[in-house]
Amino acid sequence: MYDLIVIGGGPAGMAAALEAEKNGVASILILERAEFLGGILRQCIHTGFGMHYFREELTGPEYADRFVVPVEQNPRIEVKLGAMALELRPGGETHTVIAVSKSDGLLELRAKAVVLAMGCRERPRGALNIAGTRPAGIISAGAAQKYVNMDGFLPGNEVVILGSGDIGLIMARRMTFEGAHVKMVCELMPYSSGLTRNIVQCLDDFGIPLKLSCTVVAVHGKERLEGVTIAGVDERLKPIPGTEEEVPCDLLLLSVGLIPENELTRGAGVPIDPATGGAIVNQNRETALPGIFSCGNVLHVHDLVDYVTLESQLAGAGAAEYIRRKNAGETVRAPEYVPTKAGEGVRYVVPQQAEKNEAAGVKLYFRVGGVHKNAVVRLYANGKELARKKRPRLAPGEMEHIEIAPRQLAELPEGAELTVEILE
């Protein structure tokens, strides 16, 4: 029996566990299906991590070690590596996690609270409906990153990248460093889905063209990829006849989006937000099921790991407060929540609800649906403006936030909705 079980030993899970321990939780278990802590950061050997949280530039492994070392040295935190969580069964007093591990076999574990921090996975080729054969040489950008950075294997020499997500942009530079020829990055949308700094540092600095409103419509080759056909797309994202162009290549990297790993979450009956693919949560990142929290990329896909850390600390502190109340036998009054809503120009808002008596105010994180220049972010409820800020540029690849003060929350009338919108 544990006070807290954290599922996932990546940056989100480790930050949540450390914050929970800092707030008084005495017995914590981290379940990690890989053979090491740190998650995807272990293969991200490029710099750019930690500039917001640590105020210094780190590689992925360096950032991970800032959390791995204190986790491994903390006597209150137990870690099971090579342990795969199979099922989460919510309960009243305790929650049950069914897991399997190479060393311990089938496990039935119980805890007063659970933090879900399983991360996300890449969208596969099967989701794209690209015509053609099934040759070798079509892999995700993350798989290529593992091959190159961890296995020392270069999977191709003449490269086309489909999708301008951050992993694809970073791998365009990485493949170039290793001697491959990256011919182009094709992006279906009329804007990039990656960070502006990655477009500049990974494409522009190396003369790699970014083709917007462009996609791969066919692949060629039997045993090995020999080339692809690209085409421009219209405003409905349909290929435009007559714009087809054949591009010889032996490697197609897919960087076409990330999917939160929420099979456990759905199986437990936690309500999911269709806009994020993650759980619906409050400002403490607690789901609709009391004692079950969610954070990091399993909640919504982040652009920076620094924000994953900050969010996961909210979940860890929230879980600690929940456990404290449980241990004290407190009868907790059902909180009064104000729902949040994505307005004009906004794709989603997290958290999806904010507690009215929250003492510290609430940061509302959101992503926009398109590129906006010289725009205003506006937060309002029932027609009354609560906050606004000017932004010279907003893009879908970069997460934004706006804050509501505790007094403003407390004064909202019954039935109010917090709406975030973009004005140009």
What percentage of amino acids are in beta strands?
Answer: 35-45%
How many beta-strand elements?
28
- Reported CATH architecture of the largest domain: 3-Layer(bba) Sandwich
Question: Structural class, judged by helices and strands?
Answer: alpha/beta
Multimeric status of the protein: single chain
- Helicity level, as a percent range? 10-25%
Query: CATH topology of the largest domain, anyone?
Result: FAD/NAD(P)-binding domain
Mean pLDDT: 95
User: How many discrete structural domains?
Assistant: 3
Number of helices: 8
Distance between the termini: 54 Å
| CATH 4th-level superfamily of the largest domain | FAD/NAD(P)-binding domain
**What is Rg?**
23 Å
Unreliable spans: none
| Top CATH class of the largest domain | Alpha Beta
* Gross morphology: globular
Largest beta-sheet characterization: 7 strands, mixed
Walkthrough of the structure:
About 20% of the residues lie in helices and about 35% in strands. The chain has helices at about 10-20, 60-75, 140-150, 165-175, 195-205, 265, 305-330, 405-410, and strands at about 1-5, 30, 45-50, 60, 75-80, 85-90, 95-100, 105-115, 120, 130, 140, 160, 180-185, 210, 215-220, 225-230, 245-250, 250-255, 260, 290-295, 335-340, 345-350, 355, 360-370, 370-380, 385-395, 400-405, 420-424. The longest helix is centred in the last third of the chain and has 24 residues, at about 305-330. The chain folds into 3 domains: about 1-120 and about 255-330, FAD/NAD(P)-binding domain; about 125-255, FAD/NAD(P)-binding domain, CATH 3.50.50.60; about 335-424, Immunoglobulin-like (Sandwich), CATH 2.60.40. It is of the alpha/beta class and about 425 residues long. Strands 1, 2, 5, 6, 7, 8 and 20 form a 7-stranded mixed sheet that branches. Strands 11-18-12-13-14 form a 5-stranded parallel sheet. Helix 4 (about 165-175) runs parallel beside helix 5 (about 195-205). The protein has 8 helices and 28 strands. The chain is globular.
